[in-house]
Amino acid sequence: MFRERERERQGEMGLEDLGDLVLSIILSKVGPKNAAMIACVSRRYRVSASDEGLWLRFCSEELDLSSPEDPYGKPAPSFKVTYKLWKEAFGMYPWPLVRRAKQCWSTLKSWMAANFPEAGNTLRKGASEAEIKVLENELGVTLPLPTRVLYRFCDGQEIGGPEEFLGLIGGYFFYDHAVNVYLLPLSGVIFETKELRHGGFPSTSKYVVVAASTYMDKLFILNCDDGQLYVGTGNLATNREMIPCVPDALIRSVHDMNSFQLQDAILLWLEEHGRRLQSGTIRLREERKIRSISLFPETSPVCSIAVTNGVQVRASAVFVPELSNLQNEEEKYCFSYSIRMRLLPQGCMLDGVYFGSCQLYWRHWVIRANDVVVSTAGGDAVIGKHPLLYPGAEEFVYESCSPMRSSSGSIEGAFTFVPGRMLWSFIDQIPFS
User: Fold this and answer.
1) What is the CA radius of gyration of the chain?
2) Sheet containing 177-183: which strands, arranged edge to edge?
3) Which of 51, 168, 432, 433 has its Cα between 20 and 30 A from that of 106?
4) Are the C-beta atoms of residues 414 and 433 closer than 8 Å to each other?
5) In the beta sheet, which residues pair with residue 263?
6) What is the pLDDT of residue 188?
7) Mean of the pLDDT values across residues 360-365?
8) Prior bond to 301 cis, omega within 30?
9) 231, 202, 237: which is closest to 218 by C-alpha?
10) Helices H, strands E: what count in the chain?
């Protein structure tokens, strides 16, 4: 205050001389902590620093909030109180990490609210510090800080019955293999981790199960010491074989409370999952009136798309770790692929002649591992079906799988269709590819 008075005596302008709009702009630039400190200087500063518009801006920018509510979704009397409640609830963690975890969950929840509300309804409220401590004591681990904050915002999902496919992480289906992965609540983490230890993992292991499929034994396992996330292979039960989900170089400072560069594999994994959902790279699939998140990519470049004579074919693949065997040199990695075919609205055009339908007749595949042809396949129909395509009809979809000797490979080929409807005598019909 002496400096303020001295500037006034010398005819210089101080903060007290600024207009309300200018002062408001300055307060918005200095941030919540400094704004609260400035409020202690004078009554005028206190009034300006208590403006609801100012704290609305802070809550919006830092916490992505558009209405005043506490961390548990309950209404708060003002945005200033809202900010205070959030600080009290998460003040023990680095604030950039809190903001990042909040944004991660906001992305996932907003997508589910718009597209998959029945899955959104399975999300549990955030866990308390006491509940996290119970898990750590039960399992003898210390959760990485990013994982702790993620669970403070949402304690996983209420796991449904075997008829439900509401897993946040989603999955895939081919033949009789059905996978749909849920993010486990803390109670589920404790139960599944104890089951894992009964199955051969040491009782002092720092690995905990954080996500699992309700149908097949697909498990995602977190290393609490270094923050890496693993997915189990087909040999998980016999020799604890796992594959890392995130490059090690991306994981940083998972236990350093003073670090502003905290990120573990679960945070990175969920952020990427949210980006794929929001961008439409992965989408909902409905089959037999059952909706679920399908992990087969739907857009290029991770989905191949080709159009010939009005027929569109889309193809993409996913890695199937739970059926992979890293000890088998010839069939080390298992991949599932999804083929979606439809007739575009303009119908089928062949040599200038329009056809209102076409039917699949033949297929031919070339399978490569590391650019080396390992097998070829051809034959009548696909999975025993000759789909008949019409403009505007739903895509015909089928999934299959192929073991590979390497993690890099390709499956390419062609489908042969008959314009119109296939006559089994093939009289007057000309197949086309």
Assistant:
1) 28
2) 242-244, 229-232, 219-223, 207-213, 177-183, 170-174, 290-294, 283-287
3) 51
4) yes
5) 252
6) 96
7) 90
8) yes
9) 231
10) 12, 18
Residues forming a β-bridge with 283 = 294
Positive or negative torsion for Cα 272, 273, 275, 281:
positive
Q: Taking a C-beta distance cutoff of 8 angstroms, is the pair 94, 108 a contact? A: no
- Judged on CB neighbours under 10 Å (0-12, 13-18, 19+), 311 is buried
Sign of CA dihedral 277, 278, 279, 283: positive
> Which residue intervals of 66-222 are DSSP H helices?
79-90, 95-115, 117-120, 129-139, 145-153, 186-198
At a CB cut-off of 8 Å and minimum separation 6, what does 81 contact? 68
Q: What is the DSSP letter of 381?
A: S
Q: Which residues contact 191 (CB under 8 A, 6 or more apart)?
A: none
| φ, ψ of residue 139 in degrees (nearest 5) | -100, -10
Q: Supply the pTM of this predicted model.
A: 0.86
CA 317 – CA 145 distance, rounded (Å)? 33
DSSP 77: S
pLDDT value at residue 322: 96
The predicted pLDDT at position 64 comes to 85
Residue pair 200/237 in contact (Cβ under 8 Å)? The answer is yes
**In this model, does residue 270 exceed pLDDT 60?**
yes
pLDDT on residue 318: 96
Closest by CA position to 236, among listed 289, 192, 296 = 192
Q: Is the pLDDT of residue 14 over 70?
A: no
Separation of alpha carbons 334 and 322, rounded Å: 8
Tell me phi and psi for residue 145, to 5 degrees: -55, -45
pLDDT digits (tens, 9 = 90+) for 221-258: 999 999 999 999 999 999 999 999 999 999 999 999 88
pLDDT tens per residue, range 35-87 = 667 666 666 656 666 677 787 888 888 888 889 999 888 899 998 899 889 99
- Between CA 165 and CA 178, with CA 320 as vertex, the angle to 5 degrees is 30
pLDDT by residue (tens digit) across 371-413?
888 888 888 888 888 999 999 898 999 998 888 889 888 888 8
Q: What percent of the chain has pLDDT over 70?
A: 86
Positive or negative, the Cα torsion across 131, 134, 140, 142? positive
